[in-house]
Amino acid sequence: MTRADSAPLFTEGTLSTLQLIGYLAVAIALMVIDHRGNYLARIRWGMSAAIEPMYRIAAMPSQLANRTSLALADREKLTEENAELSRQLLLAEASLNRYRAVRAQNQRLQQLLDVQRSLGIGVQLAKIIHVDTDPFRHRVLLNVGADQGVQVGQAVIDAHGIMGQVIEALPNTATVLLITDPTHAIPVTIERTGMRAIAHGSGALDSLELPNIPISADVKVGDKLITSGLGGVFPSGFPVGEIRSIRNDSSGMFAAAVATPSAALDRSGEVLLLHVLPDPVGPPEAASLVGPPASLAGDAPSSSAPAASKP
Amino acid sequence: MNRTRANSALFWSSLLACYLLQLMPLPQALLPLKPYWLALALVYWALESPERVGLGLAFVLGLLGDVVTGELLGEHALRLCILCFILLRFRARLRFFPMWQQALAVFALLLNDRIVLLMVRACAGEPSPPVTFWLAPLTGMVAWPWLFLLLDDLRSRLRVRES
């Protein structure tokens, strides 16, 4: 036991409370500074070459487990899954056909209205990395980052609805704050009535909270929530959730609703990053001149018809 | 000379492993049960080789933890400093405790750490966490004997090989 020789048996004397106070003061100062200015993001950016490999290594066991379960999946299960998938494909095909019809109709209507600007949505596919930085915060990491064009503030969706927004972009990874995080709030409208509300994260992956709804408001269980586009972070019109229950809040002045998120937040896999930026905050641009569509107005002697519309 | 080098290799690799364990994903239901591995490793090394562990090391390890997890800078540093201070104060007694009493002491340390974390989060204006927040110290207590035995075994193996 030569190990104990160098170490004093009683360490009380060498350990000063002053030292502790000093370190605590530094830690608290760092926290306050970081809370105000968010310098941690910059430090993380600088150290990303070291941090990102750690994330990949930490995610390896779960990837391995996934692959093993895939390899060991028995035949019966695969057949069942195949049947289920082909049924889903059929359904998807049917709804896709309907969508095509609607799109064609939409195109016709747009042309009719001479709408110049058609909404092109650019998306980027990303995969979720299985890393857990804190079980009580709802954040996920994506395998794309600033080098792939990810920016802070981009909305993240999956096949069913809004998942969250990018809050940090490292060179090759990005952190997404889910809509169910207790610190997150998203402006929504109720699809049926157009009423605006704000959906707060509840801290549970399967519910959103809508406090402070006027008691007289027309809200029912089963109402769909879509993004309103207000606030300038999320583009409008994407599904957010569905009202699950409504009750009066403790003060009795307002109703509070609980909604189930549309997106499959607890299931891992691929997500889409939206490139289309939401409508800018502020007053809209002045409306263009009202009149018949340019193609109809072509032969009429009108000074307002643009010269470019003539062949 | 060679032995201390092997020992410090074990020291640093155990800490690195703890960072990776801290980041390791778990099924959703098990997430709140994840012990604070970094604190457990720090407790072990503070008990067994206090010449390496001081408040400064706890602070630096905490800062690294903050950088890795992307939380508030200084949060882990504060937690580990407090933990390390209490631990070093009672080290002389804790070392000679039987295993189950040591595990209880570790539980108390981790519970105290949870309270510190709760205070920090409350000051940052975050809502109070769910009940499952308090489960992690329990699993930390359960994990402690195994971690202790594993690291002790590794160290004694190193010693045998060197001599």
How would you sum up this structure, described in words?
The complex is a heterodimer of chains A (311) and B (163). Chain A is 32% helix and 23% strand. With 311 residues, chain A is α+β, with helices and mostly antiparallel strands. Chain A has a domain at 134-279: Thrombin, subunit H. A six-stranded antiparallel beta barrel of chain A has the order 1-2-5-4-3-12. Chain A has a six-stranded antiparallel beta barrel with strand order 6-7-8-11-10-9. In chain A, strand 4 (162-169) and strand 5 (174-178) form a beta hairpin. The relative contact order of chain A is 0.10. With 163 residues, chain B is mostly helical. Chain B has one domain. Chain B is built from seven helices and no strands. In chain B, helix 2 (37-48) crosses helix 7. The radius of gyration of chain B is 16 Å and the shape is globular. The termini of chain B are close together. The chains are: A alpha+beta (311), B mainly alpha (163).
Mean pLDDT of chain A: 78
Using DSSP, what is the number of strands of chain A? 12
Low-confidence stretches of chain A: 1-12, 114-120, 300-311
Query: How far do the termini of chain B sit from each other?
Result: 12 Å
Strand order of the largest sheet of chain A: 1-2-5-4-3-12
Order of SSEs of chain A, N→C? HHHHHEEEEEEEEEEEEH
Could you give a short description of this structure?
By secondary structure, chain A is α+β, with helices and mostly antiparallel strands. Helices cover 32% and strands 23% of the residues of chain A.
